[in-house]
Amino acid sequence: MTRRPKHRVTAERLGVRAEAGDWCTIDRIPQPPAEVLAAAGDPRLRPARMPPLGMVGAALGAPFIPLVMFFELLAKGEEAFMRFLDPKVEKDRLRAKRRDEKARREVIVAQQGLDKVFDGDWHGQAGQFLLRWYTHSTHHQRLLLATPQGIVLAAPPQRVSVGREKHLQVVARIPAAEAHLYDPFLGEFETRMLLIRFQDGSWLRVETEEPRSELHMHALRQSAPCR
To answer: 3-class DSSP state for residue 170?
Structure first.
């Protein structure tokens, strides 16, 4: 019997039947025009600061950071050494492939404006939803769940430093008729970027915790043409 992904077990505790899920974050929300901010009720545009307990935990964990960095460097060094052992032709091929992929990613990002957190229209569905992002929860992360009914976002109501799953609540629901998940690279690259694309064409960019997460796979399955 296969083991169920942890996110789906968490979703079941929330009473949500999820087909895919992952933790995600968004970039810094830009300052909206004054009239847009006033019309929205002057919502919060930043996550809450880390609680004092979290700051203490960070301070206690600081001595272990060099050790973690050492093991990360060790792993990267091993990977670099293995690449060094590759034949020159193979190294040149991989180097050219990485350059080509980077160039294609940059073209797609530039064409679609994906360097921004949303499409830029504050009056669109994505802009209006973004204005309420930290009103729903002051936590800096969201557990994004894809369900047959649409998209569900869960988070602790207030920012926490530890035990995010323990404090989870559903903070927002977006019906399938209003929005869907979309991989702007169509699975070509291993990326954390994912879009919540709304019915009016506006979009909101999120960064998943895992590269090419099960949410990306779900989005690709949903957008695949029927045969």
So the answer is: strand
